[in-house]
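Morning!

This is the sequence you dropped in the shared folder:
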Amino acid sequence: MVNVRVFFDGVLVGGTTKPKTFVDALKDKRRKNEISQETNITYLEEIAEIRINTDNSRLRRPLIIVKNGNPLLTEDHLKRIANGELGLQGLVEEGVVEYLDSEEEENAYIALNIKELNEEHTHLELSPAVILGVSASMVPFAVHNRSDRVNYGAKMMSQALGTYAINYLLRPDTKTYNLIYPQHTIVDTVIYKSNILSEHPQGQNIVIAIMPYKGYNMEDAIVMNKNSVERGLFRSTFFRTYQAEEKKYWSIESDEITIPDEGVKNYKTKYDYRFLDEEGVAPPESEVEGGDIILGKVSPLRFYGPMEEFLSEAENRRDTSVTVKFGERGIIDKVVITQTENGDKLVKSTIRETRIPEIGDKFASRYGQKGVIGSVVPEEDMPFTEEGITPDVIINPLGIPSRMTVGQLMELVYGKAAAINGEIMDSTPFYESSESKISDILKKQGFDESGVEEMYNGETGEKLKANILIGPCYYQALYHMVRDKYFMRARGPTTILTRQPTEGKARQGGLRFGEMEKDCLLAHGAALTLKERFSSDEEEVPVCKKCGVVAIENKIKGLSYCPICNTSEITRVKMSYAFKLAIDEMMAMGVYPKIGVKEEL
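The structure's back. Tokens below.
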């Protein structure tokens, strides 16, 4: 028999010629509490290694032990669990349940449920639903959806607006969104109930119809009911906190939160400091927008040397006031004046803004069916049922067959039954409420068991030719709001090096116009527009007519001459400053590019 090496927490400690006996003996000791329950042992037959792990940071999960095709968990254990006499740790101590890490799980043969058990199985899942993570197990009817959609749904739950903390009005968080009217879902899972989300919901139960609407919900766009929005549907509050600190520097110098004097460097106009009170702080309930100063601050100059000693107190300081981010606006909600750990003064100012759903805002169900608002339609123009119910949201039917999110359709039917019966329906993966129960509830109230209804055109009153699936569904507003993303500019700041517009919304940057955008303009017959688009860094450069080298220009004396042939036969050529910069850098390396110039006819 080959000697099998034994590793303990990655260290080689010995070997054995009876690996299976050794592994079984150790596992038996663990189940009898003779060694630590946190020990995991793995026999890797292919590489003749036994690995014993007791170290930290291993992901471990509980499984019921199976012997001879029967689980060690008995009816007696279940009764004691129901009475509260026994918990998971108690089952572990009794050797009924054990925790396996990812390595030991490789050697285990785990049954999903008790019906699948046979002689070969070593373990049984506590519940089939635990094969999913915390987020994925909160996706209703996960068994009926494609796995990628369950992943998308779980991911978008983390992007949804909700009540993240009860004391959010007191917390100075940097950037938060808070849904104003969150609701508990009427179709939920066991994990949802046991999770904090049952107390801190992150969505609303709304009526959804699956049908096209004049092309406004093309692709994944959704049509939203204007009256629902006006009644407060998915209304949220956005909070942003700004802060200023009076830092002390190595010398006696320090920052000061105050209204800057006119003599300080970078002083703006008196109008720019209009919101500040005598302490240099804008008071609560002031309406501000991007660029407005909300915290006045003065700092010493960056470089302080012997020359600066002769400057006056004001000239020796610069304005470093805190301004509202470009593109944002709101009302100052609260101002907190406190101290840092070092005893420096710290001021935090929180701005709030009410966000109302608008065209371009992103929403999603729990099944990865995400989309932006394509149109907000008045209620009187929306289709309605025989009972006069108009949907809050209309989504496109084409989003269902290609993605195979059957769970979305099931929630509309189950949600309908839940609303009629006044009870929350269970949609835990593998354990959802029976379809026959749902059918009976709908039939009893005179609805079609499939959830479809006859609907009428809101504009003409005509009956629609097809029956429409309509029902309640839990929907989520995501934090991807068009208010935070859209941006435009005409003139604005440029970078010093290339003299081209800055990059990014925060710096009021320009929008890049690429090859494909250029092709669009050409296709429209608007070629002249390209001349404007591609001249953001246009520069007139003096070039020598003889040798084609960029000439030297003395603007004070009004002279231009060639540094090589020393002639004054200079012509001015328009080019991009970035191109001129590239030529200068090449010349710095001793390469002199020649620009061929000739007079325009």
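Headline: The chain has a mean pLDDT of 89.

More detail when I'm at my desk.
O.
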